[in-house]
Amino acid sequence: MKKLLCISLTLILFSCNSAQKPIEISLKKISQGNLYGNGQEQIDEQQMVITSQEDWINLKKKIISTGNSSNDLPNLSIDFKERILIVLFDKQQTTGGHSIEIVESEQTPDKIIFKYRKSHPEGMATSVMTQPYYLASIIKTNREIIFEEIK
């Protein structure tokens, strides 16, 4: 009887998996494209979280300052009471065909991790100054947001 009890307890203790698996987060892609302002927007390579209308307006002004973005961002409105923006900017490129995007996301009880990838053209590409960007929104959160590049 003791052996059976010991074996049962051992099986129960070692078969329990207490490690929490990450939960994928719902990411709503809003825009993806390139800036064509030859750097006049003065936006550095970066990953950012925008949590207020004021910050969004300031960034939007920079993006549309040259009138050379590949998408129609001026009409984009975000409800910052409900959502926040996740924004990625790659560095300026001397050719077309580059992109940046979030390819994976997961959340734990204390943080959200966004994994992103930069794509580059293979072979010949148009000779034009571009700066790839990616814009998405998620439900408002107080968790720490972390960005990781997948190479």
UniProtKB/TrEMBL annotation:
Sorted alphabetically, which InterPro entries does this protein's record hold? PrcB_C_dom
Q: Is Cytoplasm set as a keyword in this record?
A: no
Please provide, alphabetically and separated by semicolons, the GO molecular function terms listed in this UniProt record. Answer: peptidase activity
What's a BP term from Gene Ontology annotated to this protein? proteolysis
* Any matching Pfam family: PrcB_C
Residue ranges of the PrcB C-terminal domain?
A: 85-138
- Record flagged with keyword Nucleotide-binding: no
On the tree of life, the source organism's domain of life is Bacteria
The protein's name: Protease stability complex PrcB-like protein
- Naturally occurring in which organism (per UniProt): Mesonia algae
